[in-house]
């Protein structure tokens, strides 16, 4: 639940258009025809609306940055967590209001910040906030890589088995679709071994051998898996969940419990909370909001009220 008060609702300012980024392939294309309705309902809020055009994820992010730079009064992203992740890079820390329309296979950030699961219902919430001049602040997590690269994320950073599986799946050319991810799971399960991680949580060092490592601003990733079940995107803190020396069979028994968030009671799971998380391990490329992010080592910092949601 979001802990906000009336004082947390700064007005939606600016006379520029509401920029709309839509990913037609999100959710395997099942909401491909949604955009005209989105634009119509947003326009009914009395603001000019400007759809953004992009062919790739990088182009989408660049289009969002350009729209904000050119004076957009708000940004709306229609898609899943990957689309939201790209859009957030443009508005984080700017004060430009943001609205996620959940239309992907994984809509964890939108769900965990209180938006309806139905895309058009979410659009109506966003339109009402635009009409009333209302926003609500939430935290974001800022990653900083060893080379100084900064990226933001809203939901969860995966830095263990799930990140390794994603990296494997992205390297594979066969099979296509969800079967590729399933095959990547089987391959990495066969290779499963704990890795040595060094964590510094608000400066306090921890050495752990682990299979699962997640740093959550929100609770969920992967379409409703509550990997960091107690994470609250308004508390100014990051939740860190570490799954230790799991064997293959144990991991497969525990993994379904992640959907309920009850895995944190397993004796091999440890949970922490910190404002700053420094994380290092050999050979790990992280995934944030389901998107390929930065290689370890990196630092994650909770940034309070970095995003103003149209709610």
TrEMBL record:
Keywords: ATP-binding, Kinase, Lipid biosynthesis, Lipid metabolism, Nucleotide-binding, Phospholipid biosynthesis, Phospholipid metabolism, Transferase. It comes from the Bacteria. SMART domains: DAGKc. Coiled coil: none annotated. Its cofactor is Mg(2+). PROSITE patterns: DAGK. Residues 13-147 form the DAGKc domain. GO terms for molecular function: ATP-dependent diacylglycerol kinase activity. Its EC number is 2.7.1.107. Gene3D superfamilies: 2.60.200.40, Probable inorganic polyphosphate/atp-NAD kinase, domain 1. Pfam families: DAGK_cat, YegS_C. PANTHER family: LIPID KINASE YEGS, SPHINGOSINE KINASE. Belongs to the diacylglycerol/lipid kinase family. NCBIfam families: PRK11914.1 (NF008882). This is Diacylglycerol kinase.
């Amino acid at each position: 639940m979001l802990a906000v008060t009336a004082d947390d609702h700064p007005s939606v300012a600016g006379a520029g258009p509401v920029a709309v980024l839509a990913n037609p392939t999100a959710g395997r294309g099942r909401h491909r025809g949604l955009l005209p309705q989105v634009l119509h309902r947003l326009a009914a809020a009395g603001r000019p609306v400007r759809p953004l055009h992009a062919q790739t994820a990088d182009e989408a992010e660049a289009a969002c940055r350009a729209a904000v730079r050119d004076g957009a009064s708000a940004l709306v992203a229609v898609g899943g967590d990957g689309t939201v992740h790209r859009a957030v890079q443009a508005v984080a820390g700017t004060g430009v209001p943001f609205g996620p329309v959940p239309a992907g296979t994984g809509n964890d950030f939108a769900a965990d910040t209180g938006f309806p699961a139905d895309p058009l219902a979410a659009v109506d919430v966003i339109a009402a906030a635009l009409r009333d001049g209302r926003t609500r602040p939430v935290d974001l997590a800022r990653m900083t890589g060893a080379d100084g690269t900064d990226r933001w994320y809203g939901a969860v950073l995966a830095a263990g088995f799930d990140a390794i599986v994603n990296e494997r799946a992205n390297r594979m050319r066969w099979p296509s679709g969800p079967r590729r991810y399933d095959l990547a799971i089987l391959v990495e399960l066969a290779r499963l071994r704990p890795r040595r991680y060094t964590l510094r949580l608000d400066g306090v060092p921890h050495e752990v051998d682990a299979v699962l490592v997640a740093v959550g601003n929100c609770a969920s990733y992967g379409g409703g898996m509550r990997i960091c079940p107690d994470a609250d995107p308004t508390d100014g803190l990051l939740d860190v969940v570490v799954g230790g020396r799991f064997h293959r069979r144990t991991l497969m028994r525990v993994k379904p419990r992640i959907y309920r968030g009850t895995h944190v009671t397993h004796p091999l799971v440890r949970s922490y909370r910190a404002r700053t998380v420094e994380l290092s391990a050999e050979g790990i490329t992280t995934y944030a909001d389901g998107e390929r992010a930065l290689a370890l080592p990196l630092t994650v910092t909770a940034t309070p009220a970095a995003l103003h949601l149209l709610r």
